[in-house]
Design a protein that fits this description.
4 domains; elongated; 12 helices; 592 residues; four-stranded antiparallel sheet; alpha+beta; Rossmann fold
């Protein structure tokens, strides 16, 4: 047992059928730095190993082994200099790659690489359970750095612990010629390929032996999460493709790469289709506001969920003070949520609460998934916005809040900025209001404490930051223009008068309507301002003795001076019979 942890023999990597370790350098992957001096069974991760074994003891009810591990525990806590290396120690150095000099810092949990100007050009972190970063390298072909990770695999039956090669990663970096995501190393027919996803929703194939890009299969919708599996004794690449409102599992055969005919196949023959809005006509409450987002919406202060201090209750107080005494802001935050998770629940949230306004703040956690194209994040948000608008709910978007204080801050800032720019472009294309929290937080005046005064940790706002968010939400809500009037009907009609009514506008601070009318659809020169949702037109034969029609448009105006668009031109006709004042059924108006 003692030898199990401290045997100096180097570990043999199981590459799961790809190629031997020595072939890496021969295949244009010049390995710059590996941790071979520490690549032994303990891997200087005694605590991780202990956790695995303690978990096994609990599952198997091995009490004697548990006592033995408790005795061994002090040994595992020996000073780090007694081991060949230390996973918590940050190692720094310089390397040449692509004829350029780079600086690096690394341990078993992360790798950061900087150019000569100290700009972070590559960052990779290891967040998987029982997994460490074994080393990193550089590929001339991809003009990109990559990492090797190894995972501890426990085998309780014979009480052994082994390591297996897991993957290599090529995150998006500033000096890479092409953006690659979730690259896979596969072998078929004696050839070796890298399969990857790009920002344009394509799956590409690169031939390592021929050193050329072979195929690029374009998808109209996002594809994510490449993985290799072997059902029915035939190797496949499986992934998820956005189809009919959901990410659905697809695959293609690896040996089809040889033929050049790559086809995507569904895992399920009879897939459920997206049914669109369950109810196209629903009654919405204009005094309900739904906060929809991640832990920032929940209201985390540091690592602790404190919703009573978040922006939700603060915004509710502001709304009650300035708009509705019975306004309600609903907290539909989900800590750790990604946009893909949000897509699964947004419809249920809308139909559960039936609020008129959706306050959307998602994408913060997507920044951390370096294998997720930023274009996919924007596509996910676009789907949710279209779904929201389909229910006649008014969404308000926000850009992300910049992260800070982490080793890979620069790359997270880069991804966060790209997602924020995409959100702003999406808001413009769909005509949705957007709050630019990125700039509001990042450029908060130094005289008032600056950006850091708004943050409780590297990602969550402080109480001051949440108060600022609430004020920005209120400002955006008050700036919303009212919707144009709808539902015109005739209340009363006679030879000389017509009373026209429309649906009352229930939005926020609606105060009045502006009416333009005249006896020609192109000459609406007369105006009237009213506070009621109806108006009585009076026929004047001096202006149009032979035309008994009148044309009009209506515009809604709120207390902030925001105007809706004018309605399309409406046409009504006065009665020909003198003295008639009988109610008339609704008129079908012509639109000009």
């Amino acid at each position: 047992m003692f030898l199990l942890f401290f045997s100096p023999a180097p570990i043999t990597l199981n590459l799961k059928g790809f190629w031997p370790p020595e072939a890496i350098e021969a295949e244009d992957f010049g390995l710059i730095q590996t941790l071979t001096n520490s690549a032994r069974l303990c891997y200087n991760y005694p605590m991780k190993i202990l956790n695995v074994l303690l978990s096994w003891c609990g599952e198997k009810n091995k009490f004697p082994f548990f006592l033995f591990l408790l005795i061994l525990f002090p040994v595992l806590l020996m000073p780090s200099d007694m081991f060949p290396g230390d996973d918590s120690t940050i190692h720094r150095g310089e390397i040449f790659a692509g004829n350029k000099l780079f600086k690096y810092e690394k341990n078993y949990e992360f790798v950061n690489i900087y150019d000569s100007g100290n700009n972070l050009v590559f960052s990779a972190a290891c967040r998987e359970k029982n997994t460490v970063i074994k080393g990193f390298g550089y590929s001339k072909t991809f003009n990109s750095f990559f990492i090797f990770k190894e995972r501890f695999i426990s085998h309780p039956i014979n009480f052994e612990l082994s390591m297996e090669f897991e993957t290599f990663t090529v995150p998006v970096i500033s000096h890479s010629e092409t953006a690659f995501y979730t690259p896979l190393l596969v072998e078929t027919g004696g050839n070796r390929y890298v399969i990857y996803i790009s920002e344009d929703f394509s799956i590409g194939v690169y031939d390592l032996l021929q050193k050329q890009f072979l195929h690029k299969v374009r998808s109209e919708t996002p594809v994510i999460k490449l993985a290799v599996s072997k059902p029915d004794n035939r190797d496949i690449v499986e992934f998820y493709k956005f189809v009919e409102g959901k990410y659905r599992k697809r695959f293609f055969y690896i040996d089809d790469i040889e033929t050049g005919r790559i086809n995507f196949y569904p895992f399920e023959k009879n897939e459920e289709k997206d049914r669109g809005p369950i109810q196209s006509e629903i009654s919405l409450d204009y005094k309900k506001f739904i906060g929809f987002g991640d832990s920032i919406t929940v209201g985390k202060i540091g690592s602790i969920e404190m919703p009573e201090l978040g922006y939700i209750p603060r915004l509710e107080l502001l709304l009650k003070d300035q708009l509705y005494e019975d306004a309600e802001v609903i907290n539909e935050g989900f800590s750790g949520g990604y946009t893909q998770e949000a897509m699964e629940r947004i419809e249920a949230v809308i139909l559960t609460h039936l609020g008129k306004y959706l306050l959307f703040h998602y994408g913060t956690n997507d920044v951390l998934d370096y294998n997720l194209p930023t274009s996919t994040v924007i596509a996910n948000i676009e789907f949710m916005m279209i779904k929201t608008l389909g229910y006649n709910v008014q969404p308000i978007l926000t850009t992300l809040i910049p992260r800070h204080g982490k080793r890979n801050e620069a790359i997270q800032r880069e991804r966060g900025f790209a997602i924020s720019q995409g959100i702003k472009n999406l808001a413009q294309s769909l005509d949705i209001p957007v709050i630019d929290l990125w700039d509001i937080f990042l450029y908060y005046p130094d005289s008032d404490g600056g950006y850091l005064s708004l943050m409780s940790d590297h990602v969550h706002p402080s109480e001051k930051g949440y108060q600022l968010m609430a004020e920005e939400w209120l400002r955006a809500l008050l700036a919303l223009p009212p919707a144009p009037p709808t539902g015109f009907t005739i209340l009363n009609r006679s030879r000389n008068q017509i009373a026209v009514q429309w649906l009352e506008n229930m939005e926020l601070d609606m105060v009045q309507y502006l009416i333009k009318f005249g006896y020609s659809p192109s000459r609406l020169y007369r105006t009237a301002t009213i506070s009621t949702a109806y108006y009585v037109f009076i026929y004047n034969p001096l202006f149009s003795p032979f035309n008994r029609k009148i044309y009009f448009q209506v515009q809604a105006v709120d207390n902030q001076g925001n105007h809706s668009e004018f309605t399309p031109v409406q046409e009504v006709r006065f009665n020909e019979i003198s003295g008639s004042s009988l109610p008339s059924p609704p008129v079908i108006f012509r639109l000009y």
